[in-house]
Amino acid sequence: MTAGAVEPHEVTAPVTARPVIRVGAPTERRNPLSADLDLMSTRDVLTVINEADRRVPGAVAAVLDEIATTVDLAVTALRGGHRVHYFGAGTSGRLGVLDAAELAPTFNSPRHWFCAHIAGGPEAMWRAVEDAEDDDRGGAAEAADCVRAGDLVVGLAASGRTPYVLGALAASSAKGASTVLLCANPEAAAARSVDVFIGVDTGPEVVTGSTRMKAGTAQKLVLNTFSTAVMVRLGRVYSNLMIDMVATNAKLRGRMISILIEATGCSEEICRQALHEADGDMKVALVLLVSGVEVSAARAALARSADQVRGALALLAS
Q: How far apart are CA 78 and CA 82, in angstroms?
């Protein structure tokens, strides 16, 4: 190379800038009460988090009317042979999966009743799937593929603006499903595009933008409240006792006996015998113990009352 010549270098194509969105939701704002979090003692960090968490139940209490409407929509859908869907991304999606997964073992609900969808698919339960929550077309396509008219679709998005969730809600509405948006942003613009809007005002997070904290706790409380109330309305609870649980281990088999004792006042021996005669069906055992009828009559009464224990007992009493 001659003196003064410029050494050649490889020219590469410019890197395409990736989309950037600055979210203005309350969950993204800084919390002045935790501004010195990294300077605090461990005990003080825990105190700040605990005091912030105390706000969540009150925020959930403020939206009980909206949750009640959602419960009624779900009961109507399930009684009509339809389904409830959760669509979420990240923490919100994982909480939807958790809630749906716990209903079958707790209430023996048919597994197809509650369907959980998470942006990025099953892999997203364990790690973040890049750009999955920004895929509004993916959410819309997934909803279009599985949601049917008459279903209830609950979108879970801390900010209230997650594209995957909003895409799923829009497609679900177009299919004739009822739609609900649950978020931690009472000012979410998407409130106007759903049938029910549940905006829980949890405010800024202790760690700015970490919606696995108060926003996630609020979503967990709302989902617990919602799905439990749905199961109560559908007759899967008698008094405050689980009567449709699945006994998959020794502890739960013991709990079934304890529940029958609590519900009827009968001895353990009698409850064990009734459960045996009912082939392990707690509802049948309960009805025969309370009413004194035979197993066949208990089964028939439950069938005539849409599997409702109180309805079956009323039929037998009349």
A: 5
